[in-house]
């Protein structure tokens, strides 16, 4: 589906980021469970933390975008016309 405006592009990118980080977090968790070297396990756990932080940030950004859209919606529509 082609994006019709910058808003759709932004929301699609946020969705892709969230989905990608969810998949990588799952992979890192699985690898961490089978890792035997403590240094490797620690590195994987650090990556899990970073991936989860990125996912939470993308969810927060989408919520913030929705709030801004509600508050500024009428102004944005005026600028588009």
Largest beta sheet, briefly? none
Domain tally: 1
H and E order: HH
Q: Which of globular, elongated, flat, extended, rod-shaped describes the shape?
A: elongated
Radius of gyration: 18 Å
Number of helices: 2
Q: Tell me the helix content.
A: over 70%
Mind sketching the topology for me?
Layout: H1 6-34, H2 38-80
Describe the protein in words.
The chain is mainly α and 81 residues long. The protein has one domain. It has two helices and no strands. It has helices at 6-34, 38-80. α1 runs antiparallel to α2 (38-80). It is elongated.
Short structural description:
By secondary structure, this protein is mainly α.
Give structural attributes.
81 residues; mainly alpha; 2 helices
